Predict the 3D structure of the following.
Amino acid sequence: MAGLSTLAIEFTVSRMLQTVYGTSNLVWANVIGLVLFFLTIGYFLGGRMADKNPNETVFYQTVALAGFSGVFFLLLTSVLLKTAAGAFASLNAGVLIGSFFGVVFALAVPITLLGMLSPFAIRLAVDDVAQAGRISGQIYALSTLGSLLGTWLPVLIVIPLAGSRMAAILFGTTLLLVGLGGLWRTNRTRSQLFSILLLVLIPAGWFWGTGPIKPRPDTIFEAESAYNFIQVVRRGNCNYLLLNEGVAFHSFTCDDGSLPSISVWSSMLAGPYLNPVQDWQAPQKMLVIGLAGGTIPQQFLRVFPNLEVDGIEPDPEIIEVGEEFFALNDDRIRPLIGDGRYMLNQVDGNYDVITIDAYRVPYIPWHLTTVEFFREVQAQLSPTGIVSINVGRVPQDRRLVEAMTATLQTVFPTVHTVDVPGSLNTILFATQSPTDFSAIQAHLDQLPAQVDPLIPAVLNTAQNGLHPTVGSETIFTDDRAPVETIVDSLVLNYIFQSGVQALPTTNQ
């Protein structure tokens, strides 16, 4: 149970942190590193305490305290993260950093106590030093078996069905009951005394374990899936999709079908118009990698009503949210559940348009940025197919855009660069056949009078956002794709130069 609880706490804390700090490798490295650090302290303290006082009552008291702290401090973490969420929304760096260190302290207590249990258990179980190897191997085998369950149960079952706070209550309380059961067998008086811990958890669970995970006045829905923390907010007559830390919108839809502005999603509509005017045909088949709530295909279908769309999305609950809040119920859109790269190699191909917008802000999944991946994309395009990908940047630092450009140029004959106005996003258009950006103006000159006004708006925006296409010496491959390293560097440099207040938020 200690092995199970250790991994359950690790995954539960990571899911709680995800709602504020995101899911980058930096977050995971910190969570895993802190867990290992506090386990190290626990192993040391547990061994010394076991030698000093090898008593079963002391051991089960430690088990009970580990279970209690697993509930109490993880619920406290959820409260701290509510404060951090507000600080993130207002970019209050002091509160945000303070909340992070509070989470570190909350993680330290239960993990250190859990680390104390294995050496203590070995000391109690070894009566004959000749059996020490066998007994310690059995105990560590049991602990690791529990860790396997602690890896699968929270992530695949408990958190998606009941939430991260309920996972903390479930696994911590179970360990507490194990400790109380041991105390009942060894010391009834201590068992009754430590039973008070259960009573303490009742109000803590009630006050800290209920209510919204991340309160916002405009929230109309929130849930935890196996992959994401999902929120839907309502502003005016539009719904917006937020994921995890919630620093960017991932989809939107408005009641009257209007568009608040030309966005990253609508900017991708310029792609098909890069093909020459002569013999130009509207796209018939499209693949979207990063479907989310379906904003990209909906805007394409508005302009190209005969289009058939396959949309890849790894999180089935986002699809459900899309159907409920974002009108993702068009028969022309076929959702495909799975990882973007895996599912790319399972589809039929011959797509006229492939769009890639699979951000975990501000990161692009590295395996969707490599030469090998874009060769797989190329294999699924029609002879006049266009691929467009959303890439982040900051003012005066285009390293990620230029590395992505260089990577695309190793596969495609032409790459065009368009900055999306009012954002820190760039759309890279790569074409299966050689193209010239002057085709955009040629299409503008020949648009019929009754055309959807979205088309000229998008094409004019693309022209205004045109940027020289520059590739760097960095080329991403499956062997080496330092995407997060580049993103971390450009974001930190931007913060140091311009301050935290310069970063965009969903309030802008």
